[in-house]
Amino acid sequence: MSEMKIALLGKTQSELVEIVNRLGMPKFTAGQIAQWLYSKKVGSIDEMTNLSFKNRERLKEDYEVGATAPVHAMRSVDGTVKYLFRTPEGNFVESVYIPDGERATLCVSSQVGCKMNCKFCMTGKQGYSGSLTTAQIINQIYSIPERDTLTNIVFMGMGEPLDNLDAVLRSLEILTAKYGYGWSPKRITVSTVGLRRGLERFLNESDCHLAVSLHSPFPAQRAELMPAEKAFPITKIVELLRKYDFSKQRRLSFEYIVFGGVNDKLIYAKELVKLLRGLDCRINLIRFHAIPDVDLQGADMHTMLAFRDYLTQHGIFATIRASRGEDIFAACGMLSTAEQQAEKKRNSIDV
Q: May I ask the CATH architecture of the domain 72-341?
């Protein structure tokens, strides 16, 4: 993406109206541009053929479509593909394409690195470099070869989505609005550690599904795994969630990575039942992908099955998420970390 020009990709309908008004074009031109971007997915302004030549030239003076291809792709034997995108600042973010029968899910990133510093997350080890723009979020969807096969989007990649809420909400608008992708909100899930103010805004301004990272029902242990617990206690998050109706279209789920010998005993399942009793939700149990320099291991499948069965028997629908892409830097943040380290090494050699 050129530094001099502004990306049209990631602009909402109202933002496109502002642009065409400023350039002295008819207001309906905004709708035409939106259709070229989000329905026809063009690569250049020249392809927007129902705009007059004069208007296309005027638009090109300051704007471009702004789509950028991934710089690297790693393909797993199970069909999973991890894509690496470079930001204008020279950083890297990942998105992961996950085919599964008739479903095809894309896991997208919302930030470069992350402030949350969860013990089990490679992205957190990078620190925080910045938030992605709406264009950079939408570009992850726009610029992969499988874009037309996608059935679901999950905001579960690098970063904390609710820490970049304005850009994420604009992305959700584009994905669900008639002028944009026109998707049902039921096809989109946003994951969070539970930033309270952002969580309230998200619940009030979007109808997309919500996934909350939980990982331990005991506050002291959750704080060890997830420092955000100190500012945003899980008990307060659950208290807030009880004010919303998740019995209809919108789904509430809790993500629970099962660490061997850490949070995998039935006492944890019992405490989860107490914490979530009466809340219309599900728990996704996730096997841990080991990351460097972290003394955590995944639980064995027998333990995970027993954990799931206890939850199900006590009224909480629980599933074990299938592990995918284990042969291609499976854990989020590993590919971008490796690429950043390689880049630093190349630069030091050049110097």
A: Alpha-Beta Barrel (3.20)
